[in-house]
Write a structure and sequence with these properties.
The protein is an alpha+beta fold. 53% of the residues lie in helices and 8% in strands. The chain binds protoporphyrin IX containing FE.
Length: 509
């Protein structure tokens, strides 16, 4: 008996060693093939990145949102194109932006990347170009220029609430990271669901939904690198990773919020409780309306993915632009004075209604917003696209089909040939006789067939927020250790880890 079990153990050990050897040999073979026989073998970059995508995982997950900074550093060593993963190239030549994202390029989104947002059934998440075209066509009427105009009163109302709260808090410093995001979150959620959220009225702007969205952000890279982890996350005990546990709880809370609000919207639809101007969700939940491509095959409620991506795409981006812009305006007395003077010149009685068309015609306000968009970037991760079906020429390099390519908006917005002194906030750069040529390099909203669907809404929010804030209030920065917004972690959105912007405000003259 003893002999038999010894024999079994020995055989098992031999089998395991054999399997391990095969795995090892396979790994060596794959590494060798990727290094020397892959279509991207001739592109420069770290050898380890050419061998395994775990190279990126290390910077995304272990270092935490450090991949972009690392890639930008790699360009200093390797030049304008770098192989950043076995099948992926990153460019930092601004010509590549047009070559990759323009309508003519026709590259598709990289499915392996976009699955981490868990919104495959949304305009943002769909990969197939034809499906994307249909979704964008259906959503367009709700986010067109005309729709943004009809949203104006809603936006005004929210911004007025913000101004009133800031004024009331007076000597108490207000956290503007939260404050701006409560406004944008309220605008998009109320537009989508027609149910008041009132995040802006929360004590110290600490709206639970907003805090949960923010807390769940770092989970993104974990899910991207280990997709099946989503299944196991509920079982990861706190003692293994308190931070992952917290992120997961926040992630679940956002999902629960959406499920609940969609369930309520469904009841409203069934009761037809909105006769005129129903919220966006009702158009999609109404069983009598047929939206091609909008049936949800998964177990999630209908419109869930769309709502999740719209809330995230629509709130943090504008909030971040307002925070970064406000910081720079307050840091620069000349800019601050010039902006206030321009606003006062066309809007002498601040309690009277100002026409948004008038605001949109103001050269300095427009330049300030453009500069705020440039320095806040939008989505900083290189938006990955798959070349195909033929090879393509990107910034002068011939790239084989099926290669994943991208260029971060940061590589364009921080290019000193296009934007001299790129780290400085200089609205005047947008007002020179030659400035209209500069517009094509402001790529915050991306370009081409997958360009931002909500840019008109974003512009309307930005005009009203900046104008109301700087015309109606006298504002000053509180504290001297505030983050200067130069450094950020890359979690698709830029995450600033320094002290958030706090201000004190009082009613202006
Ligand atoms: C300053 C504000 C904003 C910036 C900088 C911004 C930026 C972007 C960028 C760069 C993309 C392309 C993403 C990709 O290719 O993966 C995008 C897509 C998108 N954005 Fe925005 N966005 C802003 C505001 C908004 C708002 C307010 C909404 C609507 C509520 C919105 C809705 C969308 C949607 C639905 C997409 C997906 C389009 C597609 O993939 O076809 N965005 N946005």
């Amino acid at each position: 008996m003893q002999d038999l079990s010894n024999l079994l153990c020995r055989n098992l050990a031999v089998l395991l060693a054999f399997l391990l050897a095969i795995l090892l040999l396979h790994a060596v073979y794959v590494a060798f093939a990727r290094l020397f026989f892959h279509p991207l073998s001739d592109f420069p970059g770290p050898r380890l990145a050419a061998v395994t995508s775990l190279y990126r995982t290390y910077f995304d997950v272990v270092q935490g949102g450090e991949f972009l900074q690392h890639v930008l550093m790699l360009h200093e060593v390797h030049g304008p194109v770098v192989r950043v993963a076995p099948n992926e190239l990153h460019f930092n030549d601004y010509r590549a932006y047009h070559d990759i994202y323009s309508v003519e390029a026709r590259f598709t989104k990289d499915a392996n990347f976009y699955h981490c947002f868990n919104t495959g059934d949304s305009a943002f998440g769909v990969i197939d170009p034809e499906e994307s075209r249909i979704r964008r066509t259906v959503l367009h009427p709700f986010f067109s220029k005309q729709a943004a105009t009809s949203l104006e009163d809603r936006i005004r109302h929210k911004v007025d609430q913000l101004v009133a709260h800031l004024e009331k808090r007076c000597s108490i410093p207000s956290n503007m990271f939260l404050a701006f995001r409560t406004v944008t979150l309220d605008i998009i959620t109320e537009y989508l669901f027609g149910q008041p959220q009132n995040a802006v009225n929360c004590n110290a702007f600490q709206a639970p939904l907003l805090l949960n969205i923010q807390d769940s952000v770092p989970l993104l890279w974990l899910i991207k690198s280990f997709p099946s982890l989503v299944t196991f996350l509920p079982y990861i005990p706190k003692w293994i990773s308190l931070s992952v546990h917290r992120q997961f709880v926040a992630f679940c809370s956002v999902q629960a919020f959406l499920e609940a609000i969609l369930a309520r919207a469904l009841v409203d639809v069934s009761k037809s409780s909105w006769s005129d101007c129903p919220p966006v969700s009702h158009h999609f939940l109404d069983p009598f309306r047929q939206f091609k491509g909008f049936c949800c095959p998964s177990t999630k409620p209908l419109f869930f993915d769309e709502a999740l991506s719209l809330i995230q795409a629509g709130s943090d981006t504008v909030g971040n632009t307002c925070t970064v812009g406000t910081f720079h305006i307050l840091r620069n007395k000349r800019t601050h004075n010039r902006l206030v003077a321009e606003l006062k010149s066309v809007w002498p009685e601040k309690d009277e209604r100002v026409d948004i068309n008038l605001l949109q015609s103001l050269p300095y306000l427009t330049a300030v917003i453009k500069e705020a968009l440039r320095l806040s970037h939008g989505f900083v991760t290189p938006l990955p696209r798959v070349v195909g079906p033929q090879s393509a020429t990107i910034a002068g390099f011939v790239v084989p089909p099926h290669t994943i390519v991208g260029i971060s908006v940061v590589a364009v917005h921080m290019n000193s040939d296009i934007f001299p002194e790129p780290h400085s906030f200089i609205p005047e750069r947008w007002m020179l006789p030659t400035s209209s040529a500069l517009d094509r390099y402001l790529v915050s909203f991306s370009k081409g067939p997958r360009t931002c669907l909500g840019s008109s809404m974003a512009w309307a929010e930005l005009y009203l927020i900046f104008a109301f804030l700087f015309r109606k209030l006298d504002i000053e920065i509180v504290g001297d250790k505030i983050d200067d917004y130069r450094h950020f972690k890359d979690y698709f959105i830029p995450v600033h880890t320094g002290e958030p912007l706090h201000i004190r405000a009082r009613r202006s003259e």
